[in-house]
Write a structure and sequence with these properties.
Length: about 500
Amino acid sequence: MASPSSALHKSNGVQSGRIRVLKEGSRPFNQGGGPVVYWMFRDQRLKDNWALIHAVDQANKANVPVAVAFNLFDQFLGAKARQLGFMLRGLRQLHRDLQESLQIPIFLFQGEAAETIPNFLRECRASLLVTDFSPLREIRRCKEEICKRVSDSVSVHEVDAHNVVPIWVASEKLEYSARTIRGKINKLLPEYLIDFPPLQCPEREWPATNQFIDWDSLIADVLRKGAEVPEIEWCDPGENAAMEVLMGSKDGFLTKRLKSYSVDRNNPLKPRGLSGLSPYLHFGQISAQRCALEARSVQKLCPQAVDAFLEELIVRRELADNFCFYQPHYDSLQGAWEWARKTLMGHASDKREHIYTREQLEKAQTADLLWNASQLEMVHYGKMHGFMRMYWAKKILEWTNGPQEALEISIYLNDKYEIDGRDPNGYVGCMWSVCGVHDQGWQERPIFGKIRYMNHAGCKRKFDVDGYIAYVKRLVGETKKRKAEHLLAKTAKKLPS
Ligand SMILES: Cc1cc2nc3c(=O)[nH]c(=O)nc-3n(C[C@H](O)[C@H](O)[C@H](O)COP(=O)(O)OP(=O)(O)OC[C@H]3O[C@@H](n4cnc5c(N)ncnc54)[C@H](O)[C@@H]3O)c2cc1C
């Protein structure tokens, strides 16, 4: 489907390796062409966005206007109020910033992007569609459909604006583990981990820029429909908030918290020990490349912490994209390596001490207080600590009717409640825990076979388990209290005075 970017206008600062031509238009783009449209999906930001830089650059070279299109799917991987509220609030800020600083309009559509985007391209007679990159199958299918539906003359370019090293450049194949991809990525960092060029202003204005979007109603609508999983309060959405978390003067990760990353990041009692960037990275409200550049600039101060952070941010995160890009079965047992499938199936009918249904797990009704605490942290706080995620998913394997069911339940819960869910990192996290993806074989034992095992006693050796349970109890109590107060205030407002 994709070919190297031969027919592009030579781009200002966007390396050709970052761009794939998904469809070559029949008419060269600079000859009597229409505008450029950037269908934004995964990289929802103005700053440090290679796809936006490319779209504006191509528009200026062809002397045509440029717009951003965003499609709000009716249903996308089960997103609820928590995820959609965060996303739309971020987009509302982006809309304002794009209008004010660059006069680039946003057009918002609802429904299926495979229909809305080609329709929009037809209406505005666009010549070039630029999109950002996601390895998820829903989006790839959608792009294939868009390529089929747009007119022959339209070109479609995909820009990997999410990964530091574009996924198709880092490796041409499914990688086995961090060990096999690390060297490939590191070798390419001098070429790709570079400063962003300044974003040019569009030279031609879009004819009618006053596109009104009723963000308040849209947000109210998603909050109502997805009320089952309410929004979180501790994490402000948007690009500015993301930069504050990365390097704010009050509590920024690189400015205030970096030192403890190498010691505290595996301690669930110290959530501030982690960067807290995953919600922003997931929605593309911050660029991983920006995070990496800023981290490198303070490397001398805390070399160990920066190395550990870059390993997670670049190697592990991009390994997850590699898995989803090259493994069509990235969220099922079929996607596990042969050795893992064999060992898991060999132990699928082993006797379990407990078997819980999805509902029991969802309600945190197991005999393990530690597991229940992690589930409640996810349900109420919206972000389970990274260390607990591994234990959590491995226990689901132990307590359900086999690996496929364990995988389905863990992905279902992860995607429903995590603010950073529905992400390649989530699918790979569950596949790592349940199916040993990117891991190695360990000593064989019941149920797990050769898949790495984790247990309560191991957690006890690593951190204060009772302290974590008490911490989550407090967290849940506070969240419930705030929710009740909020509800009360809302009801009082509605009552006639
Ligand atoms: C079962 C399971 C489910 C998971 N689900 C998700 C998910 O839905 N979304 C998600 O973003 N991550 C997921 N992870 C990976 C990891 O736990 C989170 O990225 C991390 O806890 C997010 O917190 P942070 O940004 O504060 O982490 P930090 O340690 O500060 O990491 C910085 C960034 O590096 C990346 N990163 C960190 N750890 C990993 C990892 N193990 N694999 C890939 N990238 C990593 C993330 O983008 C993260 O935001 C999952 C892991 C497991 C085991």
